[in-house]
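quick one before i forget lol
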Amino acid sequence: MISPDPRPASGLARWAESYKTKYERWQETRESRRCRPNVTTCRQVGKVLRTQQREHLQRARQQQFFRRRNLKVEEKGEAQSPQAGEPGPSRRQGQATDLKEPLSWAKRISSPRQQVSGTSSEVFATQHQPPSGSWRDPADHLPSQAGGLPPQDPPIKKPLKHHHGTQTKAEETQPTIKHDASQQTNYGVAVLDKEIIQLSEYLKEALQRELVLKQKMVILQDLLSALIRASDSSWKGQLNEDKLKGKLRSLENQLYTCTQKYTPWGMNKVLLEMEDQKNSYEQKAKESLQKVLEEKMSAEQQLQSTQRSLALAEQKCEEWKSQYEALKEDWRTLGTQHRELESQLHVLQSKLQGADSRDLQMNQALRLLENERQELQTKTERLQRDRDLCSSDTQHLQDQLKRSEEEKLALVTKVQQLQSLLQNQSLQLQEQEKLLTKKAPHVETTSHGTVTSLSVLKSAALAS
């Protein structure tokens, strides 16, 4: 059984974490990182360690490259002679070791308890493994994982084994080079049977790893949903617990205040008051029950009265039925009378139609007379308006004549006044001339100008 992760789920449930849980989670991640190899972004390893890892990776890739092509591995100038094994058993042994190697690697990675209890970075790495790695050799995966493993574990060197396909047994004189059987493809490329078998094995292993990853994903999703539910329930339980604790504190405070506030005699008094209240409540309950009983009795009486009224209504219904039968017979007689009256009505309608036609003719003649009367009335009104207009024009002309006469009289009076003024001015001028003749001759010129101006005034007065 996979142990659930004690850390709270990420996302919506993380906002409800307390400081204590956050500190514990931070401490767990710190411990998990401290136990890992010292290859992180915050702690750079030495140059020697990096070069050693790089050499290990390069050596492993080179060995795999030579092993796939059945070539000799040359390391530090020394040729390592391959071991020529038996065709059948060596092949089976090589296949078994090749199968055991990726299976042990998959088991080492797919321990669910370590993944669930590990850090979030490790879970993320197992979930998001690149799919392209499933098509490569497991021996390539093992050196690539060397960076995550401790540096004390060097890669395991295995002796090379040459596999034979459908080839016959080789001679003992050529122990170093052995040719494998191959198949010709459509494009002229020779593919070894060994490589085809290895590819099929790699495909099987990739499918197996994919199934394991799918199972892990399902388990992680179930764990995530369970953790979210557990966090929600714990959060709600904590809230309910806090509420209950608050209620208990308030009740304890109330009890403490009551015990501190009241003496035993006071408590007896309170109990007596509560008894009185109880008696009053019981009395009120009895009164309400009495009212309900009275209402019930009144309802029963109403029911009896309604039953009596129902019996009377049934009697009246019988009477109304008899009356209905009588009225039905009367209706039949009235129907016959109605038919007779309808026949008489048709006769009267024919007479009425004749009277209507005569009425229409009379109405047409009346409309003609009314039209003639209206035309005459319009003519008289037009003549009346013309007469009114003429009278208003004559009145206007008479008013204008009166105004002209008045203006004429006013002008005559003005002319007379001007003439009298002119005469006075002429007399004054004559006197002045007489006086001026006695004075200097230059004064004569000024007097001459005044005379001319007076003559002009006279002419203007006469013209007006």
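fyi Residues 39 and 418 are 137 Å apart (CA to CA).
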